[in-house]
Design a protein that fits this description.
3-stranded antiparallel β-sheet; 3 strands; elongated
Length: 254
């Protein structure tokens, strides 16, 4: 068995899951199942919000194999989590070989959907939230347009490689300014605040909050606390961006 590649598989699986906002206990469980296929005496996997550690040790090898991996970015992608779990099950049940599992994990990193489809989905999501919050036809239309602006900002952020805090502040500010301009020049009766609320929903860290609670209840207090703090910082950056946008357009209304 190629133990080095097996370690790479465990680390890559954990990396994809953490970057896709999986719960810490789920990441560790998946990595441990992969490592246990080695039949070694010691197989350990540790996952926290910002890093991974995996170890293999046995009397049959001279030195233990340990890999540490830093996790720098996180986003929500439930499909990637499900695919990694499927590959892990196939590997542990010997339906696929180690090289096949490694190749399958590497293919997950490829673009799943075209960027245009994602942009349209963001726009449709913003419009849907405006409808859910009780908006009329003008609010739904304005939120859809604002969702398109949000998609453009996120696309620019990918190229400029901004930090998540700056990205959220800039995105929220653009959303607020866009809603204010549409209220001033296109739809005089527009409920501007409803449009802003509907459009910022794709940025709201709902998954991070949920995972923070689940990790805490599982006893992973470090990861739970880190994710709770991350959710707070994201919420703060969104609020700050909205406030900046409202001040810029002079549309602060209480």
């Amino acid at each position: 068995m190629d133990y080095k590649t097996l370690m790479d598989i465990a680390i890559l699986a954990g990396k994809i899951m953490l970057e896709s906002n999986a719960e810490t206990y789920r990441v560790e469980d998946t990595m441990n199942h992969i490592l246990k296929t080695s039949k070694f005496e010691t197989t350990e996997a540790l996952a926290i919000a910002t890093g991974l550690v995996a170890t293999l040790d046995d009397s049959s090898i001279d030195d233990p194999i340990t890999i540490v991996k830093r996790i720098n970015s996180r986003d929500t992608n439930l499909n990637k989590i499900a695919v990694v779990n499927t590959i892990s099950r196939q590997l542990t049940s010997e339906e696929i070989t180690i090289p096949e599992a490694y190749a399958a994990l590497q293919n997950i990193e490829k673009e799943q959907y075209k960027r245009l489809y994602k942009d349209l989905a963001i726009s449709a999501l913003a419009a849907s939230f405006a409808l859910l919050l009780g908006g009329g036809i003008f609010e739904i239309l304005a939120a859809g347009i604002n969702g398109g602006l949000l998609a453009l900002v996120l696309k620019g952020e990918k190229k400029l490689d901004m930090g998540s805090f700056v990205r959220n502040v800039l995105s929220s500010a653009v959303i607020s300014v866009g809603a204010g301009l549409m209220h001033a020049f296109l739809f005089p009766t527009l409920n501007m605040h409803l449009v802003i609320t509907g459009t910022i929903m794709p940025l709201v860290p709902g998954t991070a909050i949920t995972n923070a609670i689940r990790d805490t209840l599982q006893g992973d207090y470090m990861s739970g606390g880190a994710k709770a703090l991350e959710a707070f910082v994201v919420a703060l950056s969104i609020a700050l961006g909205v406030a900046i946008g409202l001040v810029l357009i002079g549309g602060v209304v209480f």
